[in-house]
Design goal:
- 33% of the residues lie in helices and 24% in strands.
- The relative contact order is 0.20.
- Strand 1, helix 1 and strand 2 form a beta-alpha-beta unit.
- The protein is built from 15 helices and 19 strands.
- It has 425 residues and is α/β, with parallel strands linked by helices.
- The structure holds flavin-adenine dinucleotide (FAD).
- Flavin-adenine dinucleotide binds next to helix 1 and helix 15.
């Protein structure tokens, strides 16, 4: 049987970082990737005439692991145009203003809902340090927002802002997740917004992914879905593709939370890994790219969490066209590849936009991700976080989904890959 020092399941960012580091240590590494491309939930693709990020997009200098990669490979970031107009809803009535008006509208709600963040999470790198964290983890973000008694337009705008961040219905998302995002940004909701939604890589995430993959020269095999893993005290045998097998001293598994429970492993994985997989993430939403006829002024809009698109804003602006990006809480409410449905969603705010083309990807229905970016359901973090990270014999686990600091982000994927490498070493 073929042998390797380490087999890595998945060539997303967690797997690629692990492969790079282990290759630099002189290990013989084989990466098995089910898709015909690397990058996993990051995917720069030429669509609508632009290099669009179909998955992970925004990164920031407050994300320590991501920024180390930016420095290492000499990458650069850029941003979309600053909004000159904003739209929001007071009931069914559309309100208009400038960016300051919209940010001012959500400021009080944001500050109040997040005010105990630093009490519960003084150290983002040690997220389980404070006792009794279940108290906030067991609550949904909706529970916490409902207590604020916000006016109707404040409520719509705050909920929409959180749908933009959480990509799921807020009653299914843990309140603690909101605090984890915010403590990673030193407790400031303004910084948290900037860190998670403004700056993107000038050469696309493709530039980062390709740089990591090239560095170290691990053997990356595409179209190689792993079928099952049998492990013992000395190593593991990984079956993949059409009847192929490889034996390794260590295996690093990088499957997303929603998938890992479906991978046959013998002896089986502990319940702390399979139970959250069966429960699924709270995030279950959609990201849309929308090309509209120009010229338009760059704009930013919040509707409500019930609308198919809760947030829309201008990301690319040219003289004759603009490309908008939008987010909704529930991927089943809208087909983002259907221009008619997307036009109807935009008419929530304005009927003067002519939609030329739309695109997106159904990550929930993608057999190799089955989720967008991780937001946990109430209770999942305190119950499962330690188990999700824990090695089982010669099996190790890396995923942006169970990072300590920026879980659910590119940064978290890098952090988790480095942690798994340290264990193997
Ligand atoms: C729409 C969207 C928007 C996002 N926006 C942002 C953002 O703006 N900023 C940010 O930082 N993050 C964002 N994210 C999250 C970020 O992309 C992920 O957290 C990160 O890329 C996860 O990396 P990973 O390596 O942990 O997992 P993945 O990228 O999911 O990698 C796992 C790999 O395993 C492969 N695989 C699955 N099953 C098998 C199998 N049986 N055998 C072999 N291989 C298998 C998959 O194909 C995949 O390549 C976004 C994600 C999505 C989907």
């Amino acid at each position: 049987m073929e042998t390797a020092d380490v087999v890595i399941v998945g060539a997303g960012i967690a797997g690629l970082v692990a492969a790079r580091e282990l290759s630099h240590q002189g290990r013989n590494v084989v990466v098995l990737e089910a898709r015909d491309r690397i990058g996993g939930r990051t995917w720069t693709d030429r669509r609508l005439g632009y290099d669009l990020e179909i998955g992970g997009t925004w990164i920031h200098w407050t994300q320590p692991h991501s920024w180390a990669e930016v420095t290492r490979y000499g990458l650069d970031v850029t941003r979309g145009p600053v909004a000159e107009e904003t739209y929001w809803l007071a009931g069914d009535e559309v309100r208009r203003g400038g960016l300051e008006d919209l940010m001012g509208l959500i400021d009080s709600g944001m500050r109040r809902v997040l005010e105990s963040t630093r009490t519960w999470l003084p150290r983002p790198d040690q997220p389980l340090a404070v006792e009794g964290l279940e108290e906030v983890d067991n609550r949904s973000l909706q529970d916490a927002l409902d207590e604020l008694d916000l006016s109707v337009d404040e409520r719509n705008a705050n909920e929409s802002a959180w749908v933009g961040h959480f990509n799921g219905p807020l009653d299914q998302c843990s309140f603690l997740s909101a605090m984890r995002w915010t403590t990673a940004a030193a407790g400031s909701w303004h910084l948290m917004h900037e860190a998670t939604a403004i700056y993107r890589l000038a050469g696309g995430t493709r530039g980062l992914v390709d740089a990591i993959a090239r560095d170290g020269g691990a053997d990356i095999r595409l179209d190689s879905p792993v079928r099952n893993i049998a492990h013992d005290a000395d190593g593991a045998t990984v079956s993949y593709g059409e009847g192929k097998e490889i034996r390794a001293e260590h295996v690093i598994v990088t499957l997303p939370q929603n998938m890992i429970g479906q991978l046959p492993v013998d002896p089986p994985l502990e319940e702390g890994k399979t139970a959250p997989s069966a429960e699924k993430t709270g995030s279950q939403g959609v990201k849309a790219w929308i090309k509209v006829k120009g010229p338009i002024k760059p704009f930013f809009a919040y509707s409500s969490q019930q609308h198919p698109l809760s947030v829309v804003r201008t990301e690319y602006l040219d003289d004759d066209v603009a490309v908008l990006v939008g987010f909704g809480a529930d991927g089943s409410r809208i087909d983002v590849n259907d221009a008619e449905q997307v036009s109807a969603a935009l008419r929530t705010w304005r009927d003067d936009l002519e939609v030329l083309e739309t695109t997106g990807h159904d990550w929930m229905d993608d057999e190799f991700s089955q989720e967008t970016w991780l937001i946990q359901r109430p209770g999942q973090f305190t119950k499962y976080h330690a188990a999700q990270q824990r090695a089982e014999g010669r099996l190790h686990f890396a995923s942006g989904d169970h990072a300590n600091i920026w879980a659910g982000f590119i940064d978290g994927a890098i952090e988790s890959g480095l942690r798994a490498v340290r264990e193997v070493s």
